[in-house]
Amino acid sequence: MASTAAPSRFVGIGVRPDASASRFVHKAAALSSSLPGAAVVKVHQHRSKARNGQAIRCAAATGKEQGAVSTASSGERSKGGLRGKLNKVVLAYSGGLDTSVIVPWLRENYGCEVVCFTADVGQGAIELEGLEKKAKASGACQLVVKDLKEEFVSEYIYPCLRAGAVYERKYLLGTSMARPVIAKAMVDVAKEVGADAVAHGCTGKGNDQVRFELTFYALNPELKVVAPWREWDITGREDAIEYAKKHNVPVPVSKKSIYSRDRNLWHLSHEGDILEDPANEPNEDMYMMSVAPENAPSEAEYLEIGIVAGVPISINGRDLSPASLLAELNEIGGKHGIGRIDMVENRLVGMKSRGVYETPGGTIMAAAVRELESLTLDRETMQWKDIVALKYAELVYAGLWFHPLREGFDALMEKLTATTTGSVTLKLYKGSINVASRKSPYSLYREDISSFENGEIYNQADAEGFIRLYGLPTQVRAMLEKGL
Amino acid sequence: MSPHPVRAAPNLTSSPYARARSATDRTPSNLALLSPCSSLLIPMTAIRCAAATGKEQGAVSTATIGEQSKGGLRGKLNKVVLAYSGGLDTSVIVPWLRENYGCEVVCFTADVGQGAIELDGLEKKAKASGACQLVVKDLKEEFVSEYIYPCLRAGAVYERKYLLGTSMARPVIAKAMVDVAKEVGADAVAHGCTGKGNDQVRFELTFYALNPELKVVAPWREWDITGREDAIEYAKKHNVPVPVSKKSIYSRDRNLWHLSHEGDILEDPANEPKEDMYMMYLEIGIVAGVPVSINGRDLSPASLLAELNEIGGKHGIGRIDMVENRLVGMKSRGVYETPGGTIMAAAVRELEALTLDRETMQWKDVIALKYAELVYAGLWFHPLRQGFDALMEKLTATTTGSVTLKLYKGSINVASRKSPYSLYREDISSFENGEIYNQVDAEGFIRLYGLPTRVRAMLEKGL
Asked: Which residues form the Arginosuccinate synthase C-terminal domain (chain A) (predicted)?
């Protein structure tokens, strides 16, 4: 282990005397000695310990004999894998091909137990029984499932909604908000099951790897992190299927979509295939959460959204929990073709990418809250709130959810939106949202002042003094220019 | 300090608020703006204006002829350029100015795309109300290329929705008035804006910036006319023909960029404003951040906007209903129709997604907020706005290409985007591995990007 003798700031960053417990287990080839002061892990040490084709048998939690994951001899539990040694890894598990393959790969490469973790963030019906069987068939010793929907909406989505956070004009941060809630749950699960590491199935080309890992750092910097996609040789679907077969892992039978999708209660994203050329319009058959505006009802629907302190709490007078409210708005919005977003965005990891997002309920919520703010926020407040919203979106997009600046912004937003209470009626029609009505007991709009009739509160003569003083700098500069 | 209705440039050798005082002692120096004119000493109010045509000016009242040098009820001005629309308000202002300031009145009408201006009728009307001259200027191309396009390029939107239609028009009109004042030798300018709105600010800040020596008269802040009936009565009393057009219940402002509506039921933001087509694909060609063509046809800025207005209007595009914070302090509710502008903005913003990198887009959007505030507040002629334009010119130099939009029943959706300067590369962003992007690099990136997070967490955990 290359912890330098000098009091490096990096001593103690998950580095233990046992060289195997390096924070970042990664390919030796990727190591660069130019990383200043970083703890450099010598992975070759572990290679010498590894035996090719080594099978690691995981002690199954049920006591049932684990199907051998390879034909090689059984190793002892303390033996490392091809790349290092970990004890127990919590893996973000979806049941798809990628994460199914990661289970045996982790065991083969790190000689560890694998606990699969699945979060319900509203991605659609999770067949729990089938999932547990699948997880164990691929070699996991346990499957943990947590329903995070209400937490997702009330503690991650609602703060962003209240702040008005939108990334690069259009993106409503659906995936960005979900990763931290999942990653936080993984850190909790790691503690519950006594794991020393966490792993995710994100590729090395996207933002999600950043979002997961920054959350791990923030909540438990001692956890080791494994990102198989950045290490292994599997380059695509065929490789993965081959690997699965070699390790006796049942290959999921579902037909893989040509699109890469991410779905949760807030949105459904699509990337890939013809979308990779921004000159192409998406095909109508790609969409899943919303109908085409042309096929939406020709009769508009009016919806009254009740709002308290900057977040929605009711639809047409019915109070609903955050997740239920969002689910219902998704249905209504989807029916009317609301919330389709097609954009080219700047990823954190450096390139531009093109994605299409369906955010029916969220688009309705955002429209309602923004509209109510036009009654309750004065000019100074709205100005700065909108500037901060830009930065807020950047932080969330970049995976810096667990960050004091975001937390500080939340404290600010809580203050600024304390009086954003009332209701907004929206008219939904063939993909459009139009405001039909707005009301608030805290409205700063007064008909008696703004109407064309003269009133007591506003004296038109005052405008002269106002303009004279407001325009004084302009006058002075003009006089300077004219030599007056 | 008593407010004086006639303002002049501050005299540097004395108080900045020194006023040009009329020679005549009849000038009420402490005129309370709200006191009725009839309480003043001078009963006769007729001042005959020397008509430019030589034709005998119809007497504007039955009183005796006054000398040209005689002041009016409130002071003395020589010649005032008035922003004139031919409507009831500005028609009444003409005799009011003459009565109160003993001046000649030159009416000025700007064509900023508000709709067919019947020039013959307008000149007659102006003179019938007592003006000695009518000047008309077509400002449409200047309006679009020198005021609208910079705002469009900057992405300026006020309070999330307002596309600044009226805010951009006032400075171009006010600047033209300053030019006309020079051309006709006027010493003052006047506008028909009320004392309750933003427009008075936008006109007057422009006057200050371009010619601080011009005096400014804002009749609405001075006179006693409180509504339509008063105005009609005043007009009759001064033999001014009352415009016959039925006044809309809404207060409207129209130009090539937009049509705004305020008043009546709109004044209650709880009320919905009272009104197929198959979809349409439109290709907008863009060069350096502003549109240049529709479906391959190059058009002048004003023609392009006019055509997009027609197309957009047909598809119900660009209706904006909002409650906004006025500069003068209160909230007001207005509905804006900005069909062509909404299409333009969508196209330019979409092309920027290809041509602007992350850092650029971030700061461009922060500045756009301030840019909109300046324009909304009437600070068009301001070095900060001009500085922002220089910045925006740099930032949008490569925003060239074309965007195809799909218009359908009030919505705009992007169908395609192309640019020779696109920073989007399929070979990098696709799911296939490529040469340019090495996935392993992501690890080092995350480790360094996340270092502050790790250090803080270690601090919190006593590590």
From this structure: 259-476
